[in-house]
Amino acid sequence: MWRLIANSVVGALASVLIAVGLFAQPEVEWDGTYGGAREDICWGCTQTADGGYVLVGLTFSFGAPHAGDGWAIRVDSEGDSVWARRYGGDGYDNLGAVLETEDGDLMLAGVTPVRNYPFWLMKCDSDGEIIWSQTYGEDYGTNVKALFQTADGGFLLAGHTENGFMAVRTQSDGQQIWREIYDSGGSEYLLSAIMTSDGGYLLMGQASFYGEYSGYLVKINDDGEVQWSLTEGIEGQNLFFYGAAESEDGSFIVSEIHQLYFVSEDGEVTGTQELDEEEHVRWLYGILPSGDGGYTLIAENDDGDYSLIRTAADFTVLWRLTLEVFDEVIKTADEGFAVGGTFGYYEDSDFYLAKIGSDPELGIPNWRNIPAASMQEDGELVLSNEDLLEYLTDADDPDSSIALDVEGGAHLAAEIIGDEVIVTSDPDWWGVDSIGLTAFDPAGHSGETMLTVSVLPMNDPPGSFNLLAPENGWVVNTRRIAFVWNEAEQNEYETDPISYTLRFVAGGYHYSIEDLTECYYLVMDYRDLLTEMGIPDSVDMFVVNWSVTACDDSSETACLKPFRMIFQRRLGVGDEAVEPSAFSLLPPFPNPFNSRAELVFGLERQSWTTLRIYDYTGHLLERLYEGVLSSGRHNVVWDASGVPAGIYLGRLESGGRSAMVKLAVVR
Fold it and tell me: Quick count: other Cβ atoms within 10 Å of Cβ 635?
């Protein structure tokens, strides 16, 4: 490996990349590391006109003693060091992006501690000597993630600050033309940006709302004006938009950590694409277009390594190259790749660069996307070979005969009989599976694709579900009772609506409430319940069993286990709550609840009082009350209609004392 020590470079080969894959793969021509005795972190790289490279990032080996400085190193086309330079002063300076200008100079971008870490842009000559330096804004900036030279010779910087995404447009001499903040209403983190064919830019990353992360896209023009923005979230799942490729029609393919998103030129999501589970991809980080209509994906594997995954236009995997290091991947002038990043951890980390050869001649018949097919449970699907082969393009000899082979899926069997493909499913199974299609040309080249098949079920009853509250064996001690249960799930193909029946039984007494739709809870006064059941006042202690049944148009499913409640009249059930005269915070009512809950508390003496709501991570969500209150009973209502389902904490503080209760929001 190449390791920079003081101002000298010693070299030896570093075996960091491991070639694995399905078809012919490009070769790793060379790779190396660059750094000193302490921590050095690479954030960006670019190829220069002479075939060499410049890497930028953060150094603790050669920087300020306790803060670190920006660092750039230039290497030749073989990876040998040409020069290395430190940029910054006594504070924390960081470089995140680099490019070579049309006149052969270098532009370095990052943040610097002047005026609360503004964006920082330097123009340097080819030897790294500073020609001029400018800073922009006073928002606390984390780093610059993207840097572009514009058609008029100016520049655009993109990154994020404490207030959102930030973009800065400059003249060729670094003078600011405009600076804009793009705020989703949450906490934003820009991960990358691309220049678009219309002269604008697509900024992408994430936005955090109450601890949940959504993908965030902002399309702007060259004047910084927002043309559209998109916030994409899935409840219970964090989304991050890492990279994008523009299509010929102006739409975009955006890499999200779990899948690819197809986004129209107007910012509408038109579809998604996941890689096959057999590819063992944990997260998708980026996407680069290829000249043949295919793509190169940058991904993290299940084992923690990284991969370059070359695909056809329909995302059939053609080859795969495994890496141990990744931060930025760029296309090189010879149609190969350069991989920049950080090798090692903490004190033992260095800049890293690898040169990967050009894309090999694949010579593979390529498939276009085949529309998904469907069949009935326990039926069969018949597909014409001729119709399937219409989706095949780019064979080496388009006039030659193409042979077709098929492979069944986990629950599907497929075979070729005559000129047809016959697909059958496992008995009594329904769901989504795929069959494999392989085309062979006379030269022995092959191309593979998958056909998705949906097996539609016969009419099924609602799925199983549980009761939630009140808990089993609860002794009734409040007038109003909130009955809560899970939603009974349906398979995705069912269209019958579900309603619920709530039943109460106590010996020979019973009562039912039917046709409860679009709700999974019901609040009742216990006296109304006992009246409807017909239980006489002379009965002092009794047990009521309650259960719920989910019903659709043709069948029903009872809850997995009924619950019981214990009534003891001598305990004074149903009496109004005693006025709190000492410091106390009573349980919220109702709880669980859907939108609003009442918090009742008592104070011993007049004092400054606060009542606040926190999420379960301790993040402050809302101040319900702050001010001086007299002694006695008080009540405050929390409107939770704007927060997601989950567990929240209410905290009362007054006169040096505090109390806390849990609130359960259900949807």
Answer: 10
